[in-house]
Each structure stands twice: as C-alpha cells, then as structure tokens.
C-alpha cells in the first residue's frame, strides 16, 4: 500500500508543479481548447460559422502562439481558417451584401496566419472583407452603419469590429487613406454618443432618431453598457498600434481615450474594483458585476499606460484591477481547467425581438461562464501582465 502511494505522489507532483507555474494566458487557452477541441465549436457553436466571437478568441490564442512559440496554438486557429476559406478567397457563411461590421473582426486573425503560411487564399479573403467597406452604407457624416438591418445606427461595439482591422490592413497593404476612415469612425461616435455628465458613451446612436430606443433629440440610446464601452476602449488602443504618429487625428483619439479612462474610475465597485453590467448604476438592484466589460477596461488601461497614452499611475491601477479580476471572476475547475464567470451572453438594440436599451433590458440578458467576449480579453490582458 505504501509503495503505491509513493508512486502516485511521484507521478502527480510534477503535473501540479507545471500547472501552478503556467501563465494564466496558457492555462486559459489550454482550457478553451479542451472545452472546444475544434475551433469552430467556440462560442458554444453547433456548426461552423464566420463569427466575430471566433475571431476574437482565436486572435487571443494566436497571441499565445506568438508569446510561447508553441505551434499547437497556431495550428488550432489555422485549422478554422483553412476549413472556412476556399481557394478563391470566398468565406463560408459570409455574405458581403449583409453589410455587417461584425464579420470584419474575424478577418484580424488572417494577418498573422497569412504572414506565416503565405497561402494566397488568406490574402484574397482579406481583400474580400476590405471590399465590403468600400460600399458599406454610412451616416451623412461617413460613419459606418452597424449593419444593413440597423440603418443609420452606429454602436460602440462596431468600432472594435471594423477599426483595428482597417488600420492593420492600411499598414500591411499600404493603403494610407484607410487611416482617415478609421479616425472618422472613432471621432464620429465620440461626437454623437458622449454624455458630458458622466464622461461615458452611450451604447448606440441613431442618426435618424426613429428607433424606439433613440432619444428624439439626440438619437442616443438610454443607457451605458460596460461591454460596449469596453469595445470602444479596445478599438482605440489597438488602432493606435497602426495609426501613424503624425496622423492629424491621433492626438484627438488619444484625448478621447484618456478622458474615458479617467471617467471609468468613478464607476468601479468600491469592494471589488470591478464594473457593473450597466456602468453608472453601481450597486443598484438587479445590476451585477460583469466580467467582459471589466476585463476590456483593464486591458485598455494596461496597454494605454504601457504605450504612454495614459499617466503611468494607470499601470498600478490596472495591475490592482487585474488581480481583483482574477479573485472575482476566475474559477478553478475539478478537471484542471479554469473558467471566467459572469459574462453577459449578448446585448443589443432594436432587432426582430425588440431590445429596448432600458436598464431592465440590460440586466435581463443571460449570464454565462466562458463567454468568448470575456475569455479572449482575459488572455490578451494576461499576456500584457505576465511577461
């Protein structure tokens, strides 16, 4: 009996030692691959689709590959793109005529995959996605509609989907006019969705002012949704990676980013340092601490401080918030995996099943563990911290 116990201990101790020493970005990426053996299964999918959540999470997993050099992470992502993209660059389940900005987000993963493989089909797919924005419908000032089915509307979410993609495309394929396009999107939303009382940005803006959720005077939606603000924050800090240092709109974008970063401090939960689903309604009945918005803010603070867009004090603030995030939202599972808890599954405005944008609406949407919109920013944030 003693011999068996000694053998078991000898076998298990190295496993636990390796597990304990692993970085959170490795542990979370490995956990997600275990939960989703094929990448098309991400986002609880039942069948393959070209979806922004797949792109978001595979972007983070590709960053793990770049950080560790372990090709299993690249292979996991490339298996998805290889199965979804035909030799002529056509993308399965993608229709340009839908004019949906969400579809561009998945295109971000094609930049590193094309750079590594040199497979021309990936370049053709990138060109196809770029082509969409040449004829994408716009507001009178040139802002991209969120989708064709949401006319005259700009949502904060959409800026993350389209702006970093176009900025990187401009850099990689030498199309500098796209930098002006990207800057226009960010500043147009800043102009129309801003609330001077809180320093926050409303989830959406309807130029036509015809939506039930739109304020008849401003066209703004009625509430602040943390994840939408998180999308906007990440859009700006990621775009700045590519926007030329001498671009005339760069200082304005940094100012928007800096002011929003400062405003968010006022709405942190006093106990946990995290943020609520409805950002400004701290501690109100039904509101809850939400993981995806919280980790997006932390990512933006950390990266913004490291890049010099924010005061260096934000390094300490982001580090404290990151540690608090792990305490509040990261769960250890019996099978050795880890999970991110308390992520809002989805939220939007209008649509067939009409989403009113009220406080009651935002707090009523489903909450789940391991939502890609929380998992992916957590992986990317972990990479920033755990060097």
Describe the structure.
It is a single chain. With 387 residues, this protein is mainly α. Helices cover 54% and strands 5% of the residues. The protein has 15 helices and eight strands. The strands form four sheets. The protein has a two-stranded antiparallel ribbon. Strands 2-3 form a two-stranded antiparallel ribbon. Strands 5-6 form a two-stranded antiparallel ribbon. Strand 5 (330-332) and strand 6 (338-340) form a beta hairpin. Helix 3 (52-68) packs antiparallel against helix 4. The longest helix has 20 residues, at 2-21. The protein is globular, with a radius of gyration of 21 Å. Residues 1-20 have low confidence and may be disordered.
Give the biggest sheet.
2 strands, antiparallel
Q: How much β-strand is present in the residues?
A: 5-15%
Task: Please state how the strands of the largest beta sheet are arranged side by side.
Answer: 1-4
Shape: globular
How far do the termini sit from each other? 44 Å
What's the tally of helices? 15
Task: Report the structural category.
Answer: mainly alpha
Uncertain stretches: 1-20
Number of strands: 8
Mean pLDDT: 95
Order of helices and strands: HHHHHHHEHHEEEHHHHEEEHEH
Helix coverage percent of residues? 40-55%
CA-atom Rg in angstroms: 21 Å
């Amino acid at each position: 009996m003693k011999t068996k116990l000694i053998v078991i201990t000898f076998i298990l101790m190295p496993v636990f030692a390796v597990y304990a020493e692993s970085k959170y970005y490795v542990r979370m990426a490995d956990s997600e691959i275990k939960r989703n053996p094929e990448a098309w299964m991400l986002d609880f999918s039942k069948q393959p689709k070209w979806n922004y959540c797949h792109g978001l999470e595979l972007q983070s997993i590709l960053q793990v590959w770049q950080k560790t050099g372990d090709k299993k992470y690249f292979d996991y992502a490339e298996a998805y793109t290889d199965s979804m993209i035909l030799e002529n660059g056509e993308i399965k389940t993608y229709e340009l005529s839908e004019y949906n900005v969400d579809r561009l987000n998945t295109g971000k993963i094609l930049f590193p995959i094309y750079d590594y493989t040199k497979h021309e089909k990936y370049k053709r797919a990138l060109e196809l996605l770029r082509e969409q924005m040449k004829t994408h419908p716009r507001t009178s000032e040139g802002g991209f509609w969120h989708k064709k089915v949401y006319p005259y509307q700009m949502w904060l979410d959409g800026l993350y989907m389209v702006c970093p993609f176009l900025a990187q495309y401009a850099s990689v394929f030498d199309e500098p006019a796209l930098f002006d396009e990207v800057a226009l999107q960010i500043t147009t939303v800043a102009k129309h969705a801003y609330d001077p009382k809180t320093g926050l940005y409303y989830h959406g803006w309807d130029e036509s002012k015809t939506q039930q959720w739109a304020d008849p005077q401003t066209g703004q939606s009625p509430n602040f949704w943390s994840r939408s603000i998180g999308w906007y924050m990440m859009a700006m800090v990621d775009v700045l990676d590519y926007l030329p240092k001498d671009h005339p709109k760069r200082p304005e974008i940094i100012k928007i980013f800096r002011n929003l970063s400062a405003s968010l401090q006022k709405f942190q939960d006093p106990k946990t340092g995290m943020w609520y689903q409805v950002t400004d309604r701290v501690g109100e009945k039904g509101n809850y601490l939400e993981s995806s918005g919280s980790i997006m803010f932390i990512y933006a603070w950390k990266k913004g401080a490291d890049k010099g867009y924010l005061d260096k004090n934000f390094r300490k603030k982001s580090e404290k918030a990151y540690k608090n995030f792990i305490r509040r939202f990261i769960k250890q599972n019996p099978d050795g995996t880890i999970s991110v808890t308390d992520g809002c599954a989805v939220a939007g405005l209008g649509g067939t099943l009409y989403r009113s944008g009220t406080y009651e609406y935002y707090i009523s949407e489903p909450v789940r563990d391991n939502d890609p919109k929380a998992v992916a920013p957590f992986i990317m944030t972990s990479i920033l911290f755990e060097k």
